[in-house]
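Subject: DNA polymerase I structure
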Amino acid sequence: MKPVAGKTLYLVDGSGFIFRAYHALPPMSRPDGVQVNAVYGFTNMLARLLSDAGAERVAVIFDVSRHSFRTELYPQYKAHRPPAPEDLIPQFALIREATRAFNVPAIELEGFEADDLIAAYAAAEIAEGGDVIIVSSDKDLMQLIRPGVSLLDPMKNKPIGAAEVMEKFGVPPEKVVDVQALMGDSTDNVPGVPGIGQKTAAELINLYGDLDTLLARAEEIKQPKRRQSLIEHAELARISRELVRLREDAPLPVALPELDKRQPDPEVLKEFLVAQNFRSMLSKLLGPDGVKLAVARAAATPAPTVAPAPGSVTMPTPADAPRNYELVQTRDRLDHWIARAHMVGQVAFDTETSSLNAASAELVGISLAVAPGEACYIPLAHGTPGGQLDLGGDRPQQIPLIEALDALKPLLLDPSVLKIGQNLKYDMVVLEKYGVSITPYDDTMLLSYVLDGGKHGHGMDELAERHLGITTISYEEVCGKGKKQIGFAEVALDRALAYAAEDADVTLRLHSVLKARLLLERQVHLYESIDRPIPTIITAMETTGALLDRNRLRELSTDFGQRMAVLESQIHEAAGEVFNIASPKQLGEILFGKLGLADQGKTSKTDNYSTSVDVLEDLRASHPVPGMVLDYRQLAKLKSTYADALVEQINPRTGRVHTSFALALTTTGRLSSSDPNLQNIPIRTEEGRKIREAFIAPEGHKLIAIDYSQIELRLLAEVAGIDTLKEAFAAGVDIHALTASQVFDVPLETMDKETRRKAKAINFGIIYGMSAFGLAQNIGVSQGQAQAFIRAYFERYPGIRAYMDRMKAFAKEHQFVETLFGRRCWVPTIADKNAARRGFAERQAINAPLQGTAADIMKRAMIRVAATLTETKLPAKMILTVHDELLFEVPENHIDEAIATLRPVMENAAGSVVSVPLICEAGVGQTWASAH
């Protein structure tokens, strides 16, 4: 079983949801008399979508008003539309509140319609290699359908693709705009060409190819009335085209990464549902105690078929080649397949398990493939106790699990047989619990990641579509979804065979495509020396896990809760009334209504006030409430996300927490952590650092934290060729003090902390593309002063500006930049017409070689550290990696030896590729916090 990878963006047509809900439900009102039938229907549809859809990103897009660039172009556009029903108008704001209660962005932009924003977000996601599902049946959105973009009718739960567009309009999606321009639209008052209906418009566009060609050749039309109408109303047709064409270059009010799907805050959602008196929905969405969310994430809807990626190698067998799949239920047939693998010299391998969390997953079955179309499935735990199958008291015939693993072990360790997997680290973690290891191996996910990085996702289903033209069987097809979903151990064996054997078969076929590209695209060394060895290292880390102090977490939870209660009282006292601090609406009314603070928090004329972190930070000096609310929010997040959640994530079998590291998710090659995410534990505040106090060493051991000091600044000096900085790093000079001295013309011997702090902000800000405005906010100076500091910085270090310009130019030419080790970090939006997207890509182009090289160095360090631990038999365990840091668990009597052995390994991990010295700092403690 393989976790789903890649980005799928769901864009919800808010207006479509609203009006469907309003017209579908009878009048409903809250106890205060406010109509909420549209709110109820909208909330119900959104909850169902979030539960059933496989969205990694999601947003609801709304219209602001009827005034847009289209009404400037053609004042009659939508002019005859009646106003919204009076009882619906008050519900618009509540519907936006509902969206935010589910922690989903509610996006709108003055001057543009919702359809334009949907078009722009779809284009942006596709440019980043993702897929887009537009939740709407609106015909105007059908022009956006293309490989990777489809519509989903929310009422019928029916996908709408190119075939449905052809059926409706008589033309493919890319020609819908021309047809609409000719036929017009009476609903929106789009004029079109008089006398031209849909059927005629489709015939003309199919005949002449496009609108411009048709209008240029209108004299050729045989029918007199049609010819005359096209000639006389050609300009109307062109205007109509501009009215119906959606603006894919519209600005993005919210950046794409901010659309990443997030679980709702239970208290915020509960408060909203209670306020609307939605009792049945409250019971449905929240647990009995009104806290536990039941909005579960399901697996993704299969993405539409897309053409093979450019540069793909032709697969050796067609996608529709015969599939000979066998269910292996006896030892002699298992031995047959093992013999085949030995004879062929390679075998694709996959596990089916009870959970996507590898640390807690139990093995259910194993699939093998030895040639395209030739695969088998070995069931090992189907119909086991606790399942829901009615097997008449008898389990299906299966080889005993231990016997099967004993037979497979020699094959999985045979150095003459290459094992091929997709996200093989997952299978390694599962099998490690059974004492089974895998070597040597190739991983198709990592092959794809090395070749195509951030261009697209690297999950098997997406890769099969992209490179093989195969739409794989989805997990839901065999297990169901939602509350009716069953475990894989309960799946009938014939269905399990089709699904599991296909996994191994497709993995084998992908391997033949991707492995051939490595040599052609000169990525062999990166894959072989950095990415391929990593799964073994990470498997050991994930299997070991980190020990947590449950009592300390409970103490922190109690402490945070008590401090929240105190802050709550202080906030209410300062505000002069009791209100729900977690409600953005109520907080906005207090801050901007009752207290009369500056109203820069207003998001629109009809919307609520913004109470984001940035807004509250700006207001901190104006009144005590904003600062206290920020402190309250921080404590609430630490309590719920870490102090409370980490206790629940301790594995009962090991007593430890086992995070999962994603190896192919980031653009730069960095590892990311989830379930739980241990890389996002805040360390810049005292409260955040306290969470690390709960990570402890077992009795008789200590934790050693070794991290790279200022690695990205050192790499900047390297790649930009700044001799002054390189010499300073070589001499061990305080780089921030040196920068302050150079930029502010202050002697080193008289350097004060404040001036050094400003230089530090500039040093790190330059790497991340910080603007003068951002720097001014960071160090508390005017924007003009900040701009002068940046100008002085570049004048003193002109090589940095040259490096930045060089990276942007390279990215514009090649669509990627490279790390010092040759990893390609793709930035496909570098030439985007949208200034915001282009600017973000330019900052990526500057930072990615630095962050990516640092990530490559960390991986090289982990590989070398693991080898050193084996060679020296040093009793130390590598248990976590967090960006530039490695955390070790070491017996107390080996602390000095471990530091003396491991720190030089890490400092020399870059080899001769980096001339600037890399320095590592080591700390020791009983807890992770005290090791810093």
